[in-house]
Design goal:
It is a single chain. Helices cover about 65% and strands about 0% of the residues. With about 170 residues, the protein is mostly helical. Helix 2 runs antiparallel to helix 3 and helix 2 runs parallel beside helix 7. The longest helix has 26 residues. The protein is globular, with a radius of gyration of 17 Å. The model has no long low-confidence stretch (mean pLDDT about 90).
Amino acid sequence: MYPISNGYGEVVTRLEDLTENGHHAEALLAAVFAIEKTLRRALRFCMINRGFTSKHCNSLLARSGFGDMQNYWPVFDKAHRTLPEVIGSKNCQLVSDAVKMRNQMVHGLRVLKLEECQDAVSSVRNAMDVLRRRSISELDFDPWSTMPRKIKPSLTWLSIQQPTMQ
């Protein structure tokens, strides 16, 4: 939907354009897609730095939804924090609710009010901004930049201090 080459600014502009033109339901679909992509790329970066190859990451994340990635996050995070600790509990809950709304809408289970969609888009966008800022500041990686590749498994982050020889 949004190639990385377009950049984060293009995604934000597209969401703003959809919202300004009253296409709140489409904006909800696009916002949830964008945060899932941002999360998937940040998680993939963490996995690579935990020693997994690109191929391993691809097979673990191939069919992963928001809930799966939320469960994987503390395993691969540099400090073993949960996703709610990284983006905030409220943000995480709002994104989870938006994902449910998107799924219900896409599968025809529910017709959403445009105001609900507009509120969800705003919440998702805030959470996406927080996730991106925290990824840049704490992981030194922008999820909307070129992804590193790893062919051979090797550890980059060591979470345990190695004992010193005396």
